[in-house]
Amino acid sequence: MFSQIKLDLKILDSNLKKMIGARHPILYAAAEHLFDAGGKKIRPAIVLLVSKATNTNNKIKNEHKRLAEITEIIHTASLVHDDVIDDCDTRRGIQTVHNTFSNKIAILAGDFLFAQASWYLANLDNLEVVKIISKVITDFAEGEVMQGITNFDTSISIEDYVEKSFYKTASLIAASCKAAVMINHVDENTQRIFYNYGKHIGLAFQIMDDILDITGSETSLGKPAGSDLKNGNLTSPLIFALHNQPELIKLIDREFQEDGDQKKAVELIHRTHAIEKAKDLAIEHAQASLQYLKTYQHNDFIDTLKYISNYIINRIH
Questions:
Q1: H/E element, 132
Q2: Which of 66, 123, 170, 220 is found 20 to 30 A from 184 (Cα to Cα)?
Q3: For residue range 209-258, what is the model confidence (pLDDT) as tens digits?
């Protein structure tokens, strides 16, 4: 899927470890631990594709490469903190940072990565890009607070869920897409197009991940299935199922504390059309991302961005 930017992504992989460059070996080891696990690199790949799609020479500037790296560092920092909050045992198939080291080291490693990303961001010498990417870090915090105060709350609406998903996931993709266009000094309408592409593709990805948390296996997810249920994070499949399975409310009210509660909840969700409704919601956002791309001039990199949207649609059918 990313053959056009394969070399760029390979360089990005090697640069990430150089960029974290912590002086204290424990801090470096904690940050390196998660980078060693790999990951899909979807976010930096999208940044690089948007960079090429909106550059008249279809070239990637050094600032674009650094923006892609910053995007992945910010994303990784948020994962380290999320894992502490949710007490996840594994991430990307390996032990989480706080399990390998400690909660304190994991929090400090996450803070360090955010700080490093901010430093490299400032060195782009582009105030508008600094503003839009800096806002993402506050969005992460707002999204985490929104999730925290709605844990095990059966009154949460789909609208609340989508808003939280924007802050926690889509904000970074949307902002980095817009920033990539800004570095190319392209007009505000084009910036808006790619911001909205990133927003909707980000929401589609998040909804799809939430579906897979219910339907996937630990092997495919790289973390235990049903972890959202355990942490009281009520996602779209569960929210849609609540209307048809009142028994779910009892399980949520007792916070899945009894043996078999999580398994029972998954079974109840599968007895409804909730998974299909959640898939429809993801498809709606993937199709919205395609609509924004239709308004932009055609090139090979736009085709790849469209392919990503279609990949999501086909994957969840």
A1: helix 127-149
A2: 170
A3: 999 989 876 555 555 567 788 889 999 999 999 989 999 999 999 999 99
CA 310 to each of CA 176, 202, 285, 289: distance values in angstroms, whole numbers, following the listed order: 21, 14, 11, 10
Q: Quick one: tokens of 153?
A: 């709350």
Q: Report residue 91: phi and psi, to 5°.
A: -150, 130
| Residues in contact with 178: Cβ distance below 8 Å, sequence separation at least 6, in sequence order | 132, 191, 192, 194, 195, 198
- The domain segmentation of the chain, as residue ranges, is 3-316
Lowest-pLDDT choice from 197-201, 266-270, 309-313 = 309-313
- For the ranges 38-52, 104-118, 127-141, the maximum mean pLDDT occurs at 127-141
Across 211-223, b (16+ Cβ under 10 Å) vs e yields bbbbbeeeeebeb
Please give the distance of CA 118 from its chain centroid, rounded to a whole number: 19
Query: Above 90 in pLDDT, residue 35?
Result: no
Residue environment code for 57-96, b if the CB has 16+ CB neighbours within 10 A, otherwise e: eeebeebbbbbbbbbbbbbbbbbbbbbbebebebbbebeb
Q: Is the pLDDT of residue 157 over 70?
A: yes
**Angle at 66 (CA atoms; ends 60, 71), nearest 5 degrees:** 110
Q: What is the mean pLDDT of residues 289-310?
A: 93
Residues 6+ positions from 265 with CB-CB distance below 8 Å = 226, 229, 238, 248, 251, 252, 256
Q: Which CATH class is domain 3-316?
A: mainly alpha
Q: DSSP state, 23?
A: S
Burial 122-137 (b: 16+ CB within 10 A, else e): eebebeebbebbbebb
What pLDDT is recorded for position 303? 94
